[in-house]
């Protein structure tokens, strides 16, 4: 099994270069890349742009609230960056097990966020990750 936990996880192959798995690998790579890009964007919003007028309008926060929660938002942004970095690593290393694990993490965190913060998180985080997950499984 080449050191991978799941039997469908193969040796190091670049999925966006074909990886020997055909069109499913391309679709999965694009979807996982999209999820990673979303989470890198969230990192930027929460770590660096949290106090800006545009981000405050996006999240519906006041200047005072943004100031009070900037450290907390930066922490959340960092976690989103770890998710994105892990997904990129999974793509580069062609480690499907890693991709599946991180997509599950995104889905669980997104569901929790949708239940506790705003239902918009379902559309921004959960649905893209939920679309990528079966594509990765089919690519294996």
Would you mind describing this structure in some detail?
It is a single chain. The protein has 140 residues and is an all-alpha fold. The chain is 74% helix and 0% strand. The protein is built from 5 helices and no strands. It has helices spanning 23-47, 53-59, 63-93, 96-116, 120-139. Helix 3 runs antiparallel to helix 4. The radius of gyration is 17 Å and the shape is elongated. The model is unreliable at 1-20 (pLDDT under 50).
Features:
disordered N terminus, single chain, 5 helices, 140 residues, mainly alpha
Task: Give a short overview.
74% of the residues lie in helices and 0% in strands.
Task: Walk me through the topology.
Elements: H1 23-47, H2 53-59, H3 63-93, H4 96-116, H5 120-139
Helix pairs in contact: 1-3, 1-5, 3-4, 4-5
Count of helical segments? 5
**Alpha carbon gap, first and last residue:** 12 Å
Question: Main beta sheet: strand number and arrangement?
Answer: none
> What is Rg?
17 Å
Question: What structural category characterises the helix and strand content?
Answer: mainly alpha
Low-confidence parts, pLDDT < 50 over ≥5 residues?
Answer: 1-20
SSE order, one letter for each helix or strand: HHHHH
What is the helix content? Answer: over 70%
Q: What is the typical, i.e. mean, pLDDT? A: 88
Q: Beta-strand percentage? A: under 5%
Number of strands: 0
Shape: elongated
